[in-house]
Design brief:
Blueprint (H helix, E strand, L loop, with lengths): L25 H13 L4 H21 L1
Helix pairs in contact: 1-2
Protein backbone atom coordinates (compact mmCIF):
# COMPACT_ATOMS: atom_id res chain seq x y z
CA UNK A 1 0.00 0.00 0.00
CA UNK A 2 1.36 3.44 -0.89
CA UNK A 3 2.51 5.74 1.87
CA UNK A 4 -0.26 8.22 1.04
CA UNK A 5 -3.65 7.41 2.51
CA UNK A 6 -6.45 7.12 -0.01
CA UNK A 7 -8.87 10.02 0.18
CA UNK A 8 -12.49 9.03 0.33
CA UNK A 9 -15.75 10.89 -0.01
CA UNK A 10 -16.73 13.77 -2.19
CA UNK A 11 -14.10 15.97 -3.75
CA UNK A 12 -13.93 19.50 -2.37
CA UNK A 13 -16.08 22.12 -4.07
CA UNK A 14 -15.34 25.80 -4.35
CA UNK A 15 -18.82 27.00 -3.49
CA UNK A 16 -21.15 24.81 -1.52
CA UNK A 17 -24.86 25.10 -2.30
CA UNK A 18 -26.99 26.48 0.51
CA UNK A 19 -30.11 24.58 1.54
CA UNK A 20 -32.93 25.00 4.04
CA UNK A 21 -35.15 22.32 5.48
CA UNK A 22 -38.89 22.67 5.01
CA UNK A 23 -41.48 20.81 7.07
CA UNK A 24 -44.55 19.57 5.23
CA UNK A 25 -47.37 17.29 6.39
CA UNK A 26 -46.80 13.62 5.54
CA UNK A 27 -49.73 13.64 3.10
CA UNK A 28 -48.09 16.45 1.10
CA UNK A 29 -44.67 14.76 1.31
CA UNK A 30 -46.14 11.59 -0.20
CA UNK A 31 -47.66 13.64 -3.04
CA UNK A 32 -44.30 15.30 -3.72
CA UNK A 33 -42.58 11.92 -3.61
CA UNK A 34 -45.08 10.46 -6.11
CA UNK A 35 -44.64 13.44 -8.44
CA UNK A 36 -40.85 13.22 -8.21
CA UNK A 37 -40.88 9.51 -9.06
CA UNK A 38 -43.20 10.09 -12.03
CA UNK A 39 -40.96 12.90 -13.32
CA UNK A 40 -37.73 11.01 -12.49
CA UNK A 41 -36.44 13.81 -10.26
CA UNK A 42 -35.21 14.00 -6.71
CA UNK A 43 -37.67 15.35 -4.19
CA UNK A 44 -35.57 18.52 -3.84
CA UNK A 45 -35.50 19.05 -7.61
CA UNK A 46 -39.25 18.38 -7.87
CA UNK A 47 -39.98 20.98 -5.20
CA UNK A 48 -37.76 23.47 -7.00
CA UNK A 49 -39.57 22.92 -10.30
CA UNK A 50 -43.02 23.20 -8.72
CA UNK A 51 -42.14 26.35 -6.79
CA UNK A 52 -40.44 28.05 -9.76
CA UNK A 53 -43.46 27.31 -11.96
CA UNK A 54 -45.89 28.64 -9.35
CA UNK A 55 -43.72 31.74 -8.80
CA UNK A 56 -43.62 32.50 -12.52
CA UNK A 57 -47.38 32.01 -12.84
CA UNK A 58 -48.05 34.31 -9.90
CA UNK A 59 -45.57 37.11 -10.50
CA UNK A 60 -44.89 37.13 -14.22
CA UNK A 61 -48.64 37.15 -14.95
CA UNK A 62 -48.87 40.47 -13.08
CA UNK A 63 -46.24 42.05 -15.32
CA UNK A 64 -48.16 41.34 -18.55
Amino acid sequence: MPSEALKRGRPPVEEKAAFRNVAVPMEIYEMIRDLSKAEERTIARQLAVLIKDAYQDKFEARQK
